[in-house]
Amino acid sequence: MKTLSAILCLVLSQVASGETAPPLKSRFRDVVSHERLANALSQTSKNDPMKALAPTTGADPSTVNQPVNLLEQSDIICFGDLATLVPKRAILSAPASIRDRLSLKPGVRFVGWSDFYATNRGWINTVEVSRVQAEGREPISEETQESIGKSTYLTIATFMGGPISVLPPKAPEEADKESVKP
Known about the structure:
The chain contains 7 helices and 7 strands; from the N terminus they run αααββββαβααββα. It is α/β, with parallel strands linked by helices. The strands form 2 sheets. Strands 3, 5, 6 and 7 form a 4-stranded mixed sheet that branches. β6 (154-159) and β7 (162-163) form a beta hairpin. The protein is flat and about 90 Å long. The mean pLDDT is 84.
């Protein structure tokens, strides 16, 4: 309370004596005029690269590659009143004691992977894989495969924390052919 009254007295004495803080220097910027904006728009319209783009020929790619059903591309993990979807081939190991949790139960609520994993990390194990391993160009290490085989947990492959499909390892000849594609 004493400091507040001391500050108040100091401010009042400066006001009474005519002392003021130095004025702030304001910076002025030129405002863009309508003419300059209109000129810039016309210049960008003249140099529009989309006008020089040739139209495509052939089948419409949006009709050729139609997405398939999300449930057909996913595996369901369900426990308690929660369920989540993971991509096919993301489940690396499912012991027999846990296989009943890989089917949809009535009345469950779907949540994202991170929420489901946070709630059920007591029986789910994740293995972080690289993109090269997920593409099947490099196998998962022997030690990791052994620990997956011995685990009594449901083992999910993840990439940067999210579940990812892991393709089976390709033969060395197939990997070499893909790396030399133009």
